[in-house]
Amino acid sequence: MLTVSLLIEILRTKPRLMFWLVTLAQALLWLLVPTLFYSAPPGDVADVVAIGREMSFSSTYGAPLAYWLSDIALRVANGHMIGIYLLAQICIVATYWAVFQLGRSLIGDRQALLAIMLMVGMSVFTVFSPDFGPDTLMTPLWALALLFLWRAAGRGQQLYWFALAAVFVAMLATSPMALLLLALIVLFLVITERGRLAIVNIPALAAGGIVIVAVALLLFTMKQQGISMTAYLPRLRNSAPIGQNIVAWARLLAFVVVALAGAGILVALASNATRARKSEAVAITGSAIDPFARMMVYYFALTPLLVVLASAVVSGKSTIAGIPPLLILSGLAIVIAAGTIIMVHHQRLVGIVWFSLLLAPPVLTALGVLLLPRIFAVDLKMAQPANDIARYFTDNFERRTGQKLGIVGGDPRLARLIALASPSRPRVLNDNGTTAPQLASSKDANEKGAIIVWRATDNAGTPPAAIKMQFPNVVPEIPRAFERTLHGRAPLLRIGWGMIRPQTGTPPQ
Fold first, then answer.
1. Sheet containing 450-455, strands listed edge to edge, beginning at the edge strand earlier in sequence
2. Contact yes or no for 158/201 (Cβ under 8 A)
């Protein structure tokens, strides 16, 4: 007699309930881990917040929506990072919801849930999710764009053209990658017969006009920033950069493979790909899929990713920026390729592995933060005492000048930590020689005063040559040593610093 595991039984009988249990459980885990175990933000969160603090649609900063939302989330949470971590998880939940809704309309509730469960095995939607930024925000926006595209072009629901236009306006205000995704949507509609028929109507044309205006504004902004779409093409004329670019492509491809590894393990087990032993299988049935829908899923699961991988060969950049949104249809494409009836082998083993993929990454992340500094003296960025550092330098500046700390500069990581954790929310003064956005100027620092910080390498707190060149009049103070949040073998965090005293009585803004 065939027995069905509890996980598979709930999947078959209560797919919508299971969807919310899976999605909210993952979101809760990745909300609790950084909130409870991180004493400093991960990844580029501090950079995002530093830019968002300006709340300006300046061409210097690029597409501003993600930065604005980060600043709003931090303010709503009264300066606590939980606001940003919650915002990141809302983005992931919204992504899962959009993919689930798309899957339900294409292949039914059960197989749509299978696609979501495969996404739990993709690290870009789990391990990296607390690192809020433009990529995190682009992920649900792109998922919603594909859902609205199907409802508008696939089902003929005309009002969804305006919903699609609204989402693309938000995407264009989030990342220049929206230009690539928009071009791929236009290409898809042009090369498919149903797509060509769908766009010949007033709502579609009106929505297209809205997007064209938004694209024109973005291109104007990029021109003001000096960003060129063809800046890397001359590199292809020389043989030396080609080798470097291929290495960059290989690294990016390796990241994609690793990101999909968990989903690949689940597929291998459920399909009994190794044929290691006989196994009873349970069938999970779905709806017959429309050929246009099948083409749409395969097209948007593969084409954007292939274009980005190809661009790595041209540009020589292997950054993972922009990759997470491009993987949202991977699980759905795998499920559709498996057919209308999917036979799941090794039910209990698949359940154990799936629960491991859900629970192990947050648990291991928490243990890593707790144990790595103790055992191996690893200097984890998220274990740095951001609040203590910010409080010390903020209090020193206010006590000596009688004004709020308004500007902080020097070491980029330390400056942004202070800007993030300080109650006065100071602006960040970046080195003019870097590509980082100039959030404050040297003139601002001289007028309003500033704290300049760096990693101390001697007892005198001698600043590095780059900082000494940028701030020649800064007199080093006695370095300050900070104990890490969790005591371990890692040495004390020693920070050298100096102060630029304000020249006017105008309080910093």
1. 427-429, 407-410, 450-455, 493-500, 480-482
2. yes
Residues 442-459, mean pLDDT to the nearest whole number: 89
Exposure class string for 81-106: b at 16+ Cβ within 10 A, else e: bbbbbbbbbbbbbbbbbbbbbbbbbb
What is the rounded CA–CA span in Å between residue 50 and residue 66?
12
Per DSSP, helices labelled H in 322-385 are 323-326, 330-338, 347-375
More confident position, 232 or 53: 53
Residue 188: closest CA among 301, 102, 107, 328: 301
Please tell me the predicted confidence (pLDDT) of residue 322: 79
Contact residues for 369 (Cβ-Cβ < 8 A; gap 6+):
37, 38, 380, 382, 383, 486
86: Cβ–Cβ under 8 A, 6 or more apart, which residues? 31, 73, 77
Q: From CA 193, how far away is CA 284, in angstroms rounded? A: 32
Please say whether the beta carbons of 262 and 327 come within 8 A: no
Q: What is the pTM of this model?
A: 0.91
DSSP per residue, 9-24: HHHHH-HHHHHHHHHH
Q: Which residue has the tokens 């590894």?
A: 261
